[in-house]
Design goal:
Radius of gyration: 27 Å
Strand order of the largest sheet: 1-2
Shape: elongated
Helix content: 55-70%
Structural class: mainly alpha
Order of helices and strands: HEEHHHHHH
Number of strands: 2
Length: 192
């Protein structure tokens, strides 16, 4: 009987300490606080959704005939791949924070502060992606003018060809600058 009472008391103490929070994570509120908060684990898809929409879908054409009709564009493909590398780095930061949360290796205040910083950067990168999209579109339009073929009477003159090349160069420089600024924003977070 005494053994049964001791087991019941031990079980009661275990419930008091751990609580009935099946599957939830117990986080300290702040480094200075002795209080704790129970939170549900965060799924990767839910947490990184603001970043995943910033990726470019880079899909090379399949097959010889398709590749001849739609050749890979050097500058556009390069810009999209470099942008995706920056976004991948930010996604890694989001994933690292999610893991710290789910393994209770961060406080509530630390998590909320870090998440706020990451969301601000994701918002800034969304605005930069819109500018990058415009630069890529400007580059493609100017390149399309050059690729239209030999100048016909009254159409493209050497002057308009030079202007198209200048617009291509400007668009390429703009895209390079935007990607560099985006990399700087993510790099300011420190190593992942």
């Amino acid at each position: 009987m005494q053994r049964l009472v001791a087991c019941a008391a031990l079980a009661f103490l275990a419930l008091l300490v751990t609580g009935c929070h099946s599957g939830e994570v117990r986080l300290r509120i702040s480094p200075e606080s002795s209080g704790h908060e129970w939170r549900k684990p965060i799924s990767a898809e839910q947490f990184s959704a603001p970043v995943r929409k910033l990726f470019y879908a880079v899909e090379p054409p399949l097959g010889y005939a398709e590749a001849r009709l739609h050749p890979l564009e050097g500058h556009v493909l390069s810009a999209q791949m470099r942008w995706n590398a920056v976004i991948r780095s930010l996604l890694d930061r989001f994933d690292e924070l999610r893991v710290q949360h789910n393994e209770a290796r961060i406080t509530v205040s630390g998590f909320d502060q870090r998440r706020g910083v990451l969301l601000v950067i994701a918002k800034d990168l969304a605005a930069k992606k819109a500018l990058l999209d415009a630069a890529i579109e400007q580059y493609s339009a100017a390149k399309g003018e050059l690729a239209a073929g030999p100048p016909r009477q009254g159409e493209q003159t050497p002057q308009t060809a030079r202007e198209a090349r200048v617009r291509m160069d400007e668009a390429q420089a703009t895209a390079d600058r935007i990607i560099k600024e985006a990399a700087g924003l993510v790099g300011a977070l420190g190593p992942s």
